[in-house]
Design brief:
This protein is mainly alpha-helical and 179 residues long. The protein contains 9 helices and no strands. The protein folds into 2 domains: 95 residues, Orthogonal Bundle (Rna Polymerase Sigma Factor, Chain: A), CATH 1.10.1740; 72 residues, Winged helix-like DNA-binding domain superfamily/Winged helix DNA-binding domain (Arc Repressor Mutant, subunit A), CATH 1.10.10.10.
Length: 179
């Protein structure tokens, strides 16, 4: 079966560079997908992936092996995401997820529905506000609970559930009749 993510991270913290290579190969695609879904730009996702793993490298001594690695890693990625959003929206450093969500809450036009369901779902997801896309990505694609997502995004479970509800409801409306 091979070592778990947590075992690889512990080996990396102890100085095993090969453990980091395995960990990066295993987790980088998931983190890249997180950024690609948030920003819809491959180049930005590449850059933010690099920043995230640089921060993981610098903070590796703070990793606690008794906790799951995924939520810890995505907490780092979420902070990188928030920093990028603050920069894009020209918000102060202390702006939290709620302030960012309000800045991003401009209504998006309904995406054209293609006959290809996968493209239609992707287009509907891309049309959501970034804060809703992020919650849905962490919930559906990363399998995180709302409590874990709230911790990762430095928000409350209630706020995360509300974003998820609104995002899923918008997706249901936009994809009605297609799925």
């Amino acid at each position: 079966m091979g070592p778990t993510d947590e075992e690889l991270m512990s080996a990396y913290v102890a100085g095993d560079a090969r453990a980091f290579e395995k960990l990066f190969a295993r987790l980088a695609p998931r983190v890249h997908a997180f950024f690609r879904r948030s920003f819809r730009d491959e180049g930005v996702a590449d850059d933010l992936l690099q920043v995230t793993f640089m921060k993981v490298h610098r903070a590796r001594a703070q990793y606690r092996p008794d906790l799951k690695l995924g939520p810890w890693l995505f907490a780092v990625a979420a902070r990188v995401r928030v920093d990028e959003l603050r920069r894009r929206f020209r918000l102060p450093e202390d702006a939290d997820e709620d302030v960012i969500a309000r800045a991003d809450a401009q209504p998006q036009p309904d995406p054209p529905l293609d006959t290809d369901v996968k493209d239609a779902v992707r287009a509907a997801l891309d049309a959501l506000p970034e804060s809703q896309r992020t919650v849905i990505h962490l919930h559906r694609y990363e399998g995180m609970t709302f409590a874990e997502i709230a911790a990762v995004l430095c928000s409350t479970p209630g706020a995360v559930k509300l974003r998820a509800f609104r995002g899923y409801e918008t997706l249901r409306q936009r994809l009605k009749g297609l799925l």
